[in-house]
Queue: 4 jobs
Job 1
Amino acid sequence: MNITEVIASLKSIANSPASLREDERKELLASFDTLRVKLETPFESSLRFVFAPHQSVALEIAVDMKLFDASAALSAEKKEFTLHELVARMEGDVDPSLVLRIMRFLTSMALFFEVGPQQYAALPLSHAYTTASPLSSCVVHMTSQNKIMAALPSYFRERGYLSPDDAYNGPFQYAHQTPLHCFAWLATQPRLQDAFNIMMTLPRGDTPLKWFDIYPVTTKLAVASPDDVLLVDVGGGVGHDLIAFKSSFPDLEGGLVLQELPVVVDSIPRLPTGIHVVSHDMFTTPPPATFGARAYFLSNVLHDWPDKQASIILANVKEAMAPDSVLLVSENILPDWKVPIFNASADFVMMANFAALERTEGQYREFLEGAGFELVEVWKGEGVMDGRRLLEAVLKR
């Protein structure tokens, strides 16, 4: 097959993608990435690396301008539209020249197709960023990290090339010139706090499976009495996991407790009957309502904290646990090698914001043992290709 045939084949795949299994889809994407790296010159690769943050900035500006809301409304009426038709649908006094500059990015990012000069057609991806989509909140929150990321080189030049290990004295405080922890600072920023709360409801990983889809809940988490606490969701956000859990196991006996900070609790809408909300800081003595539960669930909590502070969280959980209680930790586990760039980026986000880290299975085992737990099993859903795992631990005997 000559190069012309290869190009024609790739175009055919792009225009009419076949139905693929998840492993096939990921293998195909990895092949494209390998091909791109081999074909690029060092200069082209360098430009791709250093210009990458510009796309997220353009995307956030478009979200803020409600550009995607306007394009969605237009697309419902016609397949193609002009720049001026788009501007006319947008809120407030919008400069057409600015919208044009934003659209240059968005067309190159395959959110829109350029039919001609200043003429566009919306592509499916553009609908993912309307105001109603949680992905728009994800863009708002994650793009706010750019300031901290940009400060990392000077942070390390000034403080030495050591991984930060204190959540109250790390890159976040350096970049924002604040003594506040990231979460405390976030509470002073209503827009970003709201975006963060919404983002945390998004599913993690490449599978719709929930932790309770892969864990034998009915056999492992049975309680002796309906009055017993079945599950405490520590740092459970707005209750999305507990709501899904209750929906999947409506007849399972035992109370469900959501434990969260006041700023998050205040934003929670009405929860289903049977879910009790406790406003609490996980770094303080656990509240009586959480004592003696059958299981304590922490999802995406420990990766927010370096060992120094994460050990305090687990010490407080231990204080509330009964001898036969179970600790369930849902996290993204880094592989020991060949770490995908997405996971490497997630690790940098943890480092920048919280002086924390994404951990390998070995690091979690060592950390849990040091905190007085025994890791008894690592649960993985069938067909799961990413690093999402459920760690089951018990108190060390």
Job 2
Amino acid sequence: MRITSILLSLLAVAAMSAGNANAASANLVKNGDFSQVSNGNNNQVGHVAGVTGETMLANWTSYDGNNGGYNFVLNGTQVTTTDSRIWLQSFTPQTNGGNFFASDPLYHAGVLSQTISGLTVGDKYTLTFDYALGQQSGNTGANTDYWQVLFGQTPKAHDLEVGVLPANTVTQNSASLSIATGGFSGWQTSTMTFTAAQASQVLSFFAQGSAGAPPFLLLDNVSLTAAVPEPSTWGMLLGGIGLVGFMARRRAAKRA
């Protein structure tokens, strides 16, 4: 009876672990591909709806303290043409050719934020996103830039510029991307892990970089999922099941 209880407990743990693994496929970020806009593609991102020449990103907030900042939603099939508000040099699109977010870290960069709900306090979450660095047409000069990612409370752009974080907020940086004048970095993927301190927290992106001619940091395919159980957890589980089997065989041998 005791062995049966232990085995059932281990199977329950296995089921819970499998459930967590399946939950990891659910993206908690909404509109992570920036496809949902209020006023078309290739527009400056606004902070207040209805401003002429601006568009709103569903589920996201872009704010530099006064307005949406010098942030844009652009389209991969148009960004090297005159149809685009910002024309990037040497640009290579993602395979899907869809929308992406673009921010100039040196000119009124706004914080891009989204409130993430449904978190489990103490659980780890994996953040992944694609990013790249390009330069606006008509400009020259080398650049090195990166995304500062924050998880906690809503930050203010002018505070981040001087290194001040909001309370109860953790931050990580993507790897820096560097380009020569007129260059394009190509798309990269960044992966980070954050631990939830509250059931609802704000995920934010802020473009940071060195002085240079107008660069644009690009962002696409943002995803936040529950972390998959560590391999060590599965190892302990399998070891426990093996131990139960050994005990069962030993008991059977004694009875024989």
Job 3
Amino acid sequence: MHTITPTTSTAHASHAAPDTTTIVIADDHPLIRAGMVSLLQSEGSFTLLGQACDGEQAVELYQRLQPDVLLLDLSMPHCDGIEATTRIHALYPQARIIIMSAHEGDEVVYRCMQAGASAYLLKNAPFDELLATIASVLKGRKVVTPQMAAKLATRVHGSDLSIREREILVHLATGACNKTIARAAGIGVGTVKFHINNILSKLNAATRTEAVMLASRRGLLGLH
């Protein structure tokens, strides 16, 4: 029998049905949470301890319920999946966290795994793939798709971009000229040009447009 609890649940893992895997789901979209609950219920081997609608609640629920697995959305209000994972992993290094997202950029995947995630899974993955991922992380394995693993193996470190370069990259994505960027960033036009040249070099891009395209594809524009 499954234990389905609301976001404000006070249930504890000790209330789980015998021989089931305890789960907490965190996603800010109610329909997605409901769909995952339905799928997990149909499987018969999971006990859902609680649901969270943002990252802050995910951290709080994990601390209180300590499930076997946390299914965590990447993009959530207040505290995103990377921050939530970092905070949970700092307190519980053995936490098994599966981050689920629609983003395929290698920088996003890299940062999730560096934060302590056990797996990174695309939201359009088949349910069987989710089940296999859960089974793997329960055995202590790290899981990413072969395609993502290949990207990670050949990635140019987006983390090599400085905070200022990331800021200027976002301005470039809006089509801003150097003078506009300089005014917004509070630096000189010459300094802007210096940073742009560094960005092009680090991303192996020939033009500003190509740099923005590569950064968008890899998920760099959404990371701060």
Job 4
Amino acid sequence: MSPNNKGLFSGAVMSRDKVVVKIEKNNIIEMDKELAPLYIIRTSDFEGWLRMRSIDLHRTNSRLLKKVLRLNTSDEIEIVLTANAATITDTYWVKEKGSTLLYKDIIFTKDTFSDLALYGDPNAFSLGRQPTPELTNIGSYEKCWKMKRGQWYMYKQGSEFERFSEVFAYELGNKLGFNMAKYDMWDKYVVSEDFTNNGQVNYEPMHSIMLDNEDYMDNINIIKEMGSRLVKEYLDIIFLDTIIMNVDRHTFNYGLLRDVNTGAILSLAPNFDNNLSLISRGYAKSQERNDLMVKLFLEVKKNVEYKIPILTKELVEDIAKQVKAKVHVEIDINYIVNFCMNAYYKIK
């Protein structure tokens, strides 16, 4: 698919086979405010919504993907439209005016270019043009979607310390009873199952509502309007961020799950994308935690009631040992224990 009318798109944003937004020459002329994407409801910016769905063109393997698919453009909108703006993690897509396509015609069923997107597999250059979810696989790390037994899984590159930090975060959050996207290891990649279960729910990043505003209290106040139970889920996320010093919780790596049929907000999405936490950038000079993450959480604690989970040295040590063996990396376990527990003592 390509834009018509000299680069302007006319047609519709679809959810499965239901029209949720009507578009005429890139302008929104009608919208279902119950079912439309939250970003479009919030901003009425169709082009911005398309750009949000584009692969990061600075990734080396995205350039290889463009070459294999013979996409002679660096325009994010044109690239997204090539994939009908469809993604793995929601049921939205765009249908050009006059098209007879149905959702079953555009939904992704194969992972043909997964290895090219993940590590630049040269064998992909003999595969020819085929539909791929990689054109709408956002983020700055080399990654891909692989299909295993009818289920999509995200595979992502990273250094040994990044892989350790990602899997450690999952294991710790899981032990504390938090809603976590499961992370495991496969060879030298971290692997996570698609938490929308093949489009049974729609994932929408918090950017759709908050744009770039990461302020804890601003987010809490907005989330509170969606339901008090969601506030606890958000507090769990920023509690864990504080313990493991995840400084990368921007508004594209947390978000909401919505009912596909009604548009109702069901919950926050499981906690994901913790690879830039803990020792991902090496060991800090001091394990004393008087850092900004601790200070920000303490400010929240003054204003919002939150029952601090029970965290022990023994639990952190056990998890660190298990993940060390799984990732096959040499780490200082005492450092991990002290780093996490010092933050815990400060906020408890």
